[in-house]
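G., the chain you wanted modeled:
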Amino acid sequence: MNVTSPFSLTVLAIVALSFLGLPIGHAMIGGSILYLLLAGLDMGTAAEQLLNGMYSNYILLAVPLFILAAELMNIGSMTDRLMSFCNAIVGRFRGGLAYVNIVQSIIFAGMSGSAIADAAGTGKMMQQMMTRDGKYPGSYAAALTAVTAVIGPIIPPSIPMVIYALVSDASIGYLFLAGVVPGLLMALAQMVIVFFDARRKNFPVEAPTPLRELPLITRRALPSLMMPVVLLGGIYTGATTPTEAAAVAAAYALLISTVLYRSVSYSDFYRSVLASARTTASIGMLIAGALVFNYVITVENIPQTLTTILQAWDLSPTGFLILVNVILLVLGCLLEGTTILLVVVPVLIPTARALGLDMVHFGVVVVVNIMIGLITPPYGLLLFIMTRIAEVPLRDLVRDTLPFLWAMVGSLVLITFFPGLVLWLPRLLGYQG
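Predicted structure as C-alpha cells:
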C-alpha cells in the first residue's frame, strides 16, 4: 500500500489524533474529512453520511433506551431485591458470594445489555459485598466482577448485538435468542473455575437463607425478575419491535422503582437521565465517526479487496472463523468493542456471506470475541474500570482474571465449531438459517 495515498494518510491521521487524546469517534471524523479533501471529493459528504446513517436507522434508538433502563434499575431498590434473591438461591454453597456474582450477572443480563453498566452498577455492589470483612481478596473479587459483567451483552438484550444488526442486516430478535446458550455456557465455565477456587483457597460459606423465607424473598424480587420477560416477550410475540421493547423496558424500570418500590427521588431520576445522556452521546459520536469512515472504506473498495484476498487463500468456512477469532481477540486487546463492530466487522461480513456462514451465528461469535476483549490484557476496558472501582493493582487483577479468561476462550471455541449450540434456540422458535 502506498504510504502517501489519501487512505494511508487518513489512517495515520486517525491513529495520531487518537494518541494525542482525541476521542476515537472525533478522530475518525477528522481523518475522513482529510480523505475527502485529499481525494478531491465533496467535503459535505461527511455530514451527509453522518446524518443519513444516524437518522435513518430506527434501530439505533434502542441503544439509549437500554442504557436508560439500566440506569433506572440501578438507582432503585430493584438491584437490592435481586441481590437478595440470588443470595438465597446460591449463597449457601462454599464460595457462595462468588456464585451470587455470576448468577446476578445472568439475571441482570436480561435488563441492561451493557457490560460496562453491569460492572459499574451491580458489579460495584458485588465488589463491596465480597471484600467486606476480608472474605475474598480484593483482586479476586474485582476479577470475578469483570468477567461476569461480560455475560451481560451476550444474553439478551445486547447493545453490541443491536450494533451488529445495524451493520449486517441480521435479525435482532434471532440474534438475541442466539446469545442465550453461549451466555449460559460462559457462566457455567466461570462457575467451574469458582468451584475449584473455593476449595483450593478455602472461601467462606455464607449463612444459608431459611427455606421458609424464600417465598417472601422471591415475591419481593418478582417484579424485577419479570423485566426480562416483559422485554423479550414483547419482541418474540411480535407485540413490539426491539426498539419499542427497549422503550417498554425503560418505562417498566421507572414504573417499578417509583410506583411499586417507591425508592427513586426526583434528583435520582435526574442523575440517571443525565448519566444515560452522557453515555449515549459518547456512543453516538463513535457511531457517527464510524459511519463517515465506513464511507471512506467503501470508496477504497476495502471489503471487496479483502474478500478477493481471502478467496485466493481458499479458506474453508471453519478456517475463516478461526482467522476471525484470532483477529478479533488481538484487536480486542487494543480497541474498544464498538469501534471493532463498526469499522472492522463490516469489512469481514462480505467474505462471511460468500463462504455461506450464517449471519446470526457469525454475529454471536463476533460479539463473544469482543466481550472477551474487554477483559484481555493489556488494554481490556473492564480491567481498568475494576482497577478504579476496587482500588487494586492491575497486575494482581490480571493474575486472577487469567483462569476465567482461558475458560471463556474455551467456550468461544465450542460456539465457533458447533453452530448448533448458537442456533438451536432460534431454530426452535422459527429461524430458518
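DSSP finds 22 helices and no strands in the chain.

Shout if anything looks off.
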